[in-house]
Each structure stands twice: as structure tokens, then as C-alpha cells.
Amino acid sequence: MAVVGIVMGSKSDEKLMRPAMDTLEQMGIGYEVSVISAHRNPEEAREFGLSAESRGLELIIAGAGKAAHLPGVLASWTTLPVIGVPLSSGSLMGVESLYSMAEMPPGVPVACVAIDGAKNAALLAASILALKDKKVKKAYQEFRRKQSEGAAPATKRKCGASREKTAIASKAKGKRT
Question: From CA 29, how far away is CA 128, in angstroms rounded?
């Protein structure tokens, strides 16, 4: 069953939104995909927002470029969490989309991830859903664990030793520390 609605303003946005779909699939989270333009199909956007919760959706990930009104328009029609993904399709390479989403007026919140940050939008969605779904929580924790294992190990050093050597070297050159 779909619990996440992924909405994009244009079919051409699918390539940039694909990481969200792949990540949700990896975690076993059901989703539906819709292409709805806030400008060309305002009634469809309204209907999507109004019916999202009754259709079983628990949150929405909305990707849009240029003026990027889609996440805000959807947020105005639902009380479900909306995560905006600014897409780098405009002449300003997504900066205009980022501003449009980040500067929502008080009372109509839209969470916003990085430009072309569809994967992080899905991870944020998973962390929200994990608050009440134990299977999602387990999948999200497993993702984070595997991610940590792939990271370079932390470098350990003794703070006093490095600082002391630096002070001695500086004094030898006549510098104050």
C-alpha cells in the first residue's frame, strides 16, 4: 500500500526524482507517483492534496523546478507533511526552486532538502514514518548502519601531543603561540 505520494511538476523531472523512488523501494516503503503541474493543472493539484490522507498517504514528497510552487500548493491543501525537492531545471540551476520552497509563509510548512536531493527526501520520509512503523524503523536503522560501515574510520590523535609539538616548533622559530 502506498504511504508516500511522490509528485513532480513534469514527466521530465522523473530522472531527478528517481533516487527517492529507489530509496523508498530499498526500505520497503510503498509509494505512488503523480505528475501534476501546480500551474497547468491547479485543480488536479488541489484534488491531490485534499484526497491524499483519505487515500492512505502519510506524507508527500514533491519535486519541482523553476518557480517550484508545487510543494507549497500541495501543502496548502493538506495537513500531511510535505517534503519539497528543489530541482535544477531552471536558469539558476535550482537556486530559485530552493528559495521558493524554503521561504514558505508561516502556517504552511514545507520541509526542504538540497537541490536535487530526492534521496534525502526519501530518507527524511523514512525517518518520519519510522516514528510509528517498526518495519520502516528497522529498515532505516539498517540503512544508517550500513552507511556508517562504508565510511572512512575516524582518525584518532592525542590532542596534547600535537599542540605541544606545534608550540615547541613555533618557539624554535621565534613565534608566539
Answer: 12
35 forms beta bridges with 8
pLDDT digits (tens, 9 = 90+) for 81-119: 999 999 998 788 999 999 989 998 899 999 999 999 999
DSSP secondary structure, 102-149, as one string: HTPPTTS--EE--TT-HHHHHHHHHHHHTTT-HHHHHHHHHHHHHHHH
Q: Phi-psi bin for 37: left (phi > 0), alpha (psi -120 to 50), beta?
A: beta
Provide the 10 A C-beta neighbour count for residue 131: 8
- Name the residue among 2, 4, 1 with its Cα closest to residue 125: 4
Domains and CATH numbers, the chain: 4-150 (3.40.50.1970)
pTM assigned to the model: 0.84
Please write the tens of the pLDDT for every residue from 8-54. Answer: 999 999 999 999 999 999 999 999 999 999 999 999 999 999 999 99
